[in-house]
Amino acid sequence: MFFIINFRFHKPRRKRIDMSLKLFLLNALGGIKATSKIESEKEILWKDYQAFTAVESSDELKEFLKLQEQVQADSFQKQKKELKGLIFKGSPEERQLKQYNRLKRKKTLRNYYQTLTSSDLKRYEELKSSNKLDRYFELKESMSHKPDKNDEKAMEEWREFQSLKKSDDVNFFHKYPRSKAYRNYLHVKDSEDLREFESLQKHVEADEFKQRKAYLDDPKKWEKTEQYKAEKQYESLKNKQTIQLYLKYKDSNLFDFFKSWDLVFEDRFDQGTLDESKWKTVLYWAAETVGHNFSQEGDLQAYNDGKNVHLKDARLKLQVKKDKVNSFLWNSTFGFVEKEFDYSSDTLTTGGLFEADHGILEAKIKYNPNKSLQDVFFLSDSENKQRINLLEAGAINRIGLLRMNNETAHHETFSLAGLATGKFYIFRLEWEKGKLSWKINDRELFTINSQVPDSPMFINLASLVVHETRTLPHSFEVDWVRFYQPKN
Hints:
- β11 and β12 (408-415) form a beta hairpin.
- The protein is 40% helix and 27% strand.
- It is of the alpha+beta class.
- The chain has helices at 14-28, 35-56, 59-71, 74-84, 92-105, 107-116, 119-129, 134-142, 152-165, 168-175, 180-189, 192-204, 207-217, 226-238, 241-249, 256-260, 284-289; strands at residues 261-267, 295-296, 301-303, 309-312, 315-331, 335-345, 347-349, 359-367, 373-380, 386-394, 398-405, 408-415, 423-432, 435-440, 443-448, 458-465, 474-486.
- The chain has 2 domains: 4-32 and 258-486, Jelly Rolls (Sandwich); 92-220, no CATH class.
- The chain is built from 17 helices and 17 strands.
């Protein structure tokens, strides 16, 4: 049977007082994070996770990762560094050009080329190679001294020789080889300097050298490479919001929860009407026995079959009112007795619609206890012999585990006295094999490691009247409910 009221008046123990002080201090000193901040952070993280998974499978990311591998490769960076450091100054080409210009300025070489193109050298070479001076050399060879004047033929040749000897051509032919210009010409003609100069001249005046020099002088040679285009594309993709998000989270564990857990049940209460595929307004045990709601001894309210369930502004409100309602009461002597109640309330359950034997249950609930009432949010099994309380608020404020053994209740609870009232908190139960943990706004407050239920349980909500009261109406407000289970 539904047993919450049976166990609401246990005297607090010293341990609970200590726990309440702990909770008060945590709440007062900021040890419990603001609900709005947690929701905002989780909403952002969830949206980022969805965006991250979309990016993970995108062609854009494939291109980025391919470019990243290329751009970050040692060979790429080495080539970039070498290319950006490749300048004309200090290069072999600069040294070649400097040597060429040094030789070009050398006086002996300059004089050599002046002589090489001079008319004197041309005239001298022509005289050497022509037969123009043959007669002179012929007579010179035979005229070692002046002949006898009586030898007319010899004297005639002597006079011819003397005439040729005084001619411009012969004078030039004898004087020019002794000139400074010609001696320099002969000295340079077969020299190493000339060979080096002419070799360098041919090299530096070639189109290939000029193109190489222009390339080395170009400050934007890296920007003209295909590698630079790849690098720019990589940087462009890297700066995109989608890629930035991927890089932000790729090595993070912030998505571990989303990767490990499936949301198997959720209600945000934003449809305007109760989702009957998720909730029933008749207690599971009542539906399984008599087919309609009933109250227990000590309950002052009747469950109003959903009439006190309101969805407004994307919130669920179970309302308690001062209201005359006919319903049924379970009496241990007479059984089910029809009765007129002075208060109406309501209850919701997922019994028969959703149940689980492990996972994470969390709900955003307004903690607004009324000492004459009891708001409850809990998991229970079909036999109603054990209950995991996500929240009890009102005459008793606690979280924890309740077990029935021969109609005796066993409690393992944590008092919520000291928690600020009138505020929404995210209450969270983490249920795994052999362990139960309760958290409020991500702060773990209570853990149980023994006799942990392992049978399927369903979600229940209710508001009960336990004392006469004038502080009505009262609403048990829930913003959303979620249940997660591990992914396969």
